[in-house]
Design brief:
This protein is α+β, with helices and mostly antiparallel strands. It is built from 2 helices and 7 strands. The chain is elongated and about 55 Å long.
Length: 135
Amino acid sequence: MSDTFQLEIVTPTRLLVKDAAEEAQIPGATGYLGILPGHAPLITELGVGEITYKASGTTHTLAVAWGFAEVLPDKVTILAEASERPQEIDVARAQKAKERAEERLKSSNAEVDYARAEDALQRAEMRLNLAKEKK
């Protein structure tokens, strides 16, 4: 058995990662999953969170929001709706998105989609935290 697996992280607009990884942690819809080479096959829905993976002894982190992951013993493919590296995060934009989501959640307007506002708040907070941690 190999001590690495092929990791690919893809969004609708680009291929972010194509690397040989020793381990990975991905945010499933119901919690984080730890992946090592030889992992049992599975398909899972992604939540909002951080993907961390180790390649050539270096740990890498990316923000991810929604999508799916296919885990095979020798390959993990992540199809994400959105994903970015910490240095790519526009902090001012994320802060504005957080403020807009908080305003919507405080609103008593019946037309506000509260589930969507909660998702936007969760994603903005995760992006801000990741950008702050990686400075």
